[in-house]
Amino acid sequence: MAQKPGIPKGTRDFSPSEVQKRNHIFDIVKKHFQTFGFQPIETPSFENSETLLGKYGDEGDRLIFKILNSGDFISKVDDVTYSSKKSSSISPKISEKALRYDLTVPFARYVVMHQNEIDFPFKRYQIQPVWRADRPQKGRFREFYQCDADVVGSTSLLQEVELVQLYDTVFTDLGLKGVTIKLNNRKILAGIAEVIGAKNNLVNFTVALDKLDKIGEEGVKKEMLDKGISEAAIEKAAPLFSLSGSNSEQLAALQHLLENSEEGTKGVQELLFIVNTIKELGLKSAKLAIDVTLARGLNYYTGAIFEVAAPEGVQMGSIGGGGRYDDLTGIFGLKNVSGVGISFGLDRIYLVLEELGLFPEEIDRSLEVLFVNFGEKEAMASLKLVTKLRNSGIKADLYPSSAKMQKQFKYANNRKVPFVVSIGGKELEMGSFIAKNMDDGSQTTYTFEELDTFIASL
């Protein structure tokens, strides 16, 4: 007996319904990427190993899928290296390429390679799959899509404003109203660490602060102490644990706290510009909220930091995020090219829309009209009408065989087809067809010449 097939852990098959729903999200995201002036690019699914390795830290390197060289790759490994049994020594000799880990490093490589062809500021979007050898769990897969939009070659804060608007526009169009776009700035976090005397312990300080909503004030204080941050420093940071009020009130409190930090003050001014500009322009349905505990990849971002939270009542992690980075292309030798970008979390957005019932009802209607099959002559007459319907943009099909009517109608029900058309022997003689509305059971007879009238009724 043949072994039942399977798929690799962390990968998924998608049913027609799931693909339709995912495409619904893709289409809306892509539409607004384009209306905001972003241009599409695509990069290869795999890159040279040297492009990827060393760009994500030791943990990231461990999660990169490496591709074995073609041919007799093992013969190129000398006996000493082979006998060492060290993957770090053997791997470079048997693998020169790897699947991309994200879209950001390939984008940086793209900008450097094509810098003389690009008009800066360059607004790019990219929607492609990435691969990570992570431990699969709920909401985390080894193969998944990223939907990124970035602007490189401009330090203007108007780009941050535009990305807030882009988030708001996309989520409003998806029907996902009431999302919260959280906003912070790396300079503020650095300034806080400076004024409390923990400048040399910035990462540990912010990692702990980032957990405030998960482990509470006492938990954060304990973790900070464990990481070597003094009680005096934690006491100075106390106002952060209860920071509340409007965005303007929070920024005023931060301005007072950071008045002796040049970097921190600059971060406050940057957020103040973004908040005031958005206030003047207005948002469609999203809320913009200062969140001083937001850190997201502190070593990566240099300015504004974004994170999008689902509407209240939905238990889900962030559904989007991003920020400003001042030296994206520096890893490939092109210095001082600032950029800012955001990403949409497709899989989590899908789960939220599903939970809230926000996918359009008609999204599963991959077929609008099905012609039942009574036999060879009737099928030929049906095919002529099917062709005309398709030419008019209607999703139409003919059941391929003259099976029992019960089976054909069951197929129509399973496909959620709204109209089933019958051309039997009698209808064939009269040059007519019967259209049944599957929702209410009503039937209407049309002549072949009245096909346009039927189309208008759909």
SSE inventory with pairings:
Layout: H1 16-35, E1 39-40, E2 46-48, H2 49-52, H3 57-62, E3 66-67, H4 79-84, H5 87-94, E4 97-99, H6 104-113, E5 122-131, E6 143-152, H7 158-173, E7 180-185, H8 186-195, H9 202-209, H10 212-226, H11 231-236, H12 238-241, H13 247-257, H14 262-281, E8 287-290, E9 304-309, E10 320-325, E11 339-344, H15 346-356, E12 369-371, H16 376-391, E13 396-398, H17 405-414, E14 419-422, H18 425-430, E15 432-437, E16 443-447, H19 451-457
Parallel strand pairs: 1-5, 7-8, 12-13, 12-14
Antiparallel strand pairs: 2-4, 3-4, 5-6, 6-11, 7-9, 9-10, 10-11, 14-15, 15-16
Helix pairs in contact: 1-7, 1-15, 7-14, 8-14, 9-10, 13-14
The total domain count is 3
By helix and strand content, what is the structural category? Answer: alpha+beta
Number of strands: 16
Spatial separation of the terminal alpha carbons: 49 Å
Here the CATH topology of the largest domain equals: BirA Bifunctional Protein, domain 2
Task: Report the principal-axis shape.
Answer: globular
The percent of residues in helical segments reads 40-55%
